[in-house]
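Predict structure. Chain length: 371.
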Amino acid sequence: MIARRSLLSPLCIAPAARLVRDIFFRPFRLKTWLLFGIIVAIVGFDGGLPANFRSSFEGMPEGCDAGAGLWDLAGLSSSHVLGLLALAVLVLVLASGVALLVLWLRSLTHFAFVDAVVNRRVAIIKSYRENRRLAASFFGWCVCFGLAQVLLFLPVAAGAIALVLASGAAGEGDFVWIIGSIGMLVLFLVVGIPVLIAVGVVRVAAVDFVVPVMYLERKQVLDAWKRVLEVTRGHRGDTFVYLLLRFVMGVGFAVVSALIVLGVCAVGVALLVPLVTIVALAVREGGAAVAIPAVVAAVLSVGPAIAGIFYVWRCAVAPMVSFFRAWPMVFLGSCDESLVAVGRVRPRIRVEPVEPRVEVEPGESACPEGA
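Prediction complete.
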């Protein structure tokens, strides 16, 4: 068993950093960067933080009363209301289908990412074929976890809607509004923040620990969760420090990634400005006959350009994202030697010099002659 003190030492991070260095820089191959860029573009990276929940009324013009706008819906005819409901259901179904498709693709790619880090080569299609059953198990868990999050936040959403309706009927200065606002604030501080933290920890544990265990031991998702809890139970303090460092380093990665994307966008804008200028001049000189073809050509050119900028950004951050995939596997291998896959933490052992023993025959002196 690896010494416990070594789990918290920089040696736990060093093997992951060396592995990433060897994959991307020893030797440097553009193909490796491009293939890992595809994986990173699909999987993404959020630092382990839960998704942001923005107000549905964010960005409304000043003086616009959201509650009053909701009350105005009562003046619509039944046909208009049914039409709006049908449209809302259609949009919800389409959005859910797209979300499930993306989630399935991400579940497959999580295992392709682990496979690429462990074997130091990217084989996306092969990994999809070999790990589709594991990905299906993880996909099912992700769907259930997402539904659980919705159920957790339904009371908060219902309270917010009730507060908006009350404000629309009584006015923001009313006593009901004040009490409701205080209640919502207390509910968010007491319940919302702990739930958000718990959701973030579960998401990080699922991607960092459960997926590698599923890949290495070919376990289904629930069995992998049991294995992860078994491994980390004896290293609670180390796991807490890992999650804390994971959060801090995730924030640092987000800052570096933002700087990189700003640089990539600046280059992209510099390349797109001449195109937009040419289109504007063509529309100006050619009139309406040239306007529509020029706009269509601009849209067809700008769309791939934006996608290319996004892909270049993902390729640029691929080594950092790969580090966050290798690091938890090194940590798991430090907790349990049977899970060693990409690196091993060697405890620091101080070796004291030992003087050689000299066998002395009876009647002989142990001191050399002339001493």
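Summary: Residues 1-11, 47-74, 345-353 have pLDDT under 50 and may be disordered.
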